[in-house]
Design a protein that fits this description.
single chain; globular; 10 helices; Rossmann fold
């Protein structure tokens, strides 16, 4: 029996995210393709690619996902690498690729596949460059993936910074009640435990036992610290102000980050982010 992949239903802000990535991917490919001295070889990577398409929550219609959008970029990327942990979604990506020899689909954990198989194909010294989309629904990307991309100097990234998962499972008002497994997930995503000193500060007030309690900081403090971390620790030169993605209740569910080594890339994404930043869905 053939099982069909479960297509994700997406809302207005997720549709905008797809438009943002598609717009930048098109500009990126045009610029890279025109460069002659030296001539560069550019790669598109979608590390949590899904089934390749989605269903619009509003219209109930199929929408192309970032892998399908990327395959239609002109001029095309030289290679495409799509990764998903779900077997049926990986099969859907294979059907999407069809007979194209420039597409490789991986069924596996992107944290392993990127480091072992895909990143080595985008080495700076080989005149190769890559655009990598990291779009998890939660804390599923290891910091090593981000850090390695920054150190390679050849990889631009879009990253879903999953604040809804953080708030729901880790950044509680009483941090001592958070499960150890959730703390470990946050540590892997952040790279260490330094997020604790950003997310919490000692309260000026004391409890009944004369001890100072923790005070949870606004999520904006955590987002700002991660932006600095992308620059100062991972080594990206240009990290524009991320754009907040919201649900139908206007609550922020994640921030979309971009990071690159090139000023022109930072300028293009700043322009795109600003264009979409104040849009409002129904």
């Amino acid at each position: 029996m053939t099982h069909q992949p479960q297509y994700d239903q997406i809302g207005y802000w997720s549709e905008l995210k797809l438009d943002i990535i598609k717009e930048y991917a098109s500009a990126y490919s045009r610029i890279i393709s025109k460069q002659a001295q030296p001539k560069l070889y550019h790669i598109y990577i979608d590390a949590l690619a899904g089934a390749g398409k989605h269903v619009s929550r509003k219209k109930g219609e199929f929408l192309p996902g970032s892998p399908e959008n990327a395959l239609h970029v002109k001029p095309p990327f030289r290679e495409y690498h799509f990764i998903d942990l779900d077997k049926e979604k990986a099969k859907s990506l294979e059907r999407l690729a069809g007979s194209r020899s420039d597409v490789t689909v991986y069924h596996g954990d992107c944290n392993q596949v990127l480091l072992q198989e895909v990143y080595p194909r985008a080495k700076y010294e080989d005149y190769r460059r890559a655009l990598c989309v990291l779009d998890p629904y939660g804390l599923h990307i290891d910091w090593e993936i981000i850090y390695t991309a920054g150190q390679m100097k050849s990889v631009d990234i879009f990253l879903n910074f999953p604040v809804a998962d953080m708030n729901r499972n880790v950044l509680w008002h009483k941090s001592e009640e958070v499960l150890p497994g959730q703390i470990e997930r946050m540590n892997r995503f952040w790279g260490n435990e330094s997020w604790r000193n950003i997310a919490y500060i000692p309260s000026r007030q004391k409890n009944l036992f004369g001890q100072k309690e923790e005070q949870k900081e606004p999520m904006e403090k955590v987002v700002e610290a991660y932006q600095k971390r992308l620059k100062q620790v991972a080594g990206f030169q240009y990290v524009p102000q991320p754009i907040a993605m919201r649900n139908r209740q206007n609550a922020v569910i994640y921030y979309l980050f971009f990071a690159s080594q090139k000023p022109v890339a930072g300028n293009i994404v700043t322009y795109i982010f600003d264009k979409y930043r104040d849009r409002r869905g129904n």
